[in-house]
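Before relying on records like the one below, remember that each one covers exactly one chain. Contacts with other chains, cofactors or solvent are not represented anywhere in the record.
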Amino acid sequence: MEKTIHRCCGNALFLILIAVALFAALSYAVTNSGRGGGGGVDREQAEIEVSQLLQYFAALDTAIMRMKLVGGVSDEELSFANNVWRLEDGTTITMPAGHNPNCTSNACEVFHPEGGKMIPYLVPENMDAWYDNGSNGQNFARHGKVQLIGVTDLGTALPDLAINYAYLQPIHCDILNKKFGVTEKKIDDMVREVDGVQTFAGDYNIAVSEPIGDEEPDFIGENTFAIRHLNGTCKIHHVLIVK
């Protein structure tokens, strides 16, 4: 009887050790399933990061509306100057991109405590898919930029004012587009060389080439979308001012 008990205890301990080993292996597999060989991004984390970015866009919209309705700031006076966002060569985007010479007080500064009270946002490092195209005029990875952009059938023929984040992981573009009803197949079909954007300095009467919608019919009339680029990265746009 005693031998039987010892044998049972030994078998039970052996089974427990096997179970612990299997659980550890399963935990490791689950933890690493979204990493894609070191270069991938966990989809659940990417969902959170896209939601955070969309919340920031909503906060910007609210701040700008408050500046216009309460502070009497016009579309032509809005300034996005700051000392956080930088270009590829390391210089800040304070001048000229984002800065508006029509803004002559702190009240029309979106990123000022006496204006929009907003803080320039850097997307998480996890969203970074840095691509250096050799142009010092481009915004650095994780850094935003405010520019004029053309969107087919959004407002008038004048360009609209948009904030964009470039050089992002494609998965973030996919997630954002799906939130707005764009299917996987249509996302895969949407790639382009460049976006037609222009520097904003208070003037909306500027021609913008390659409006969004010419190659991506699902984005016609939309104000938030993500564009895939042939270099493997993507750019997320959110229109702040519709003209």
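Residues 2-8, 19-39 have pLDDT under 50 and may be disordered.
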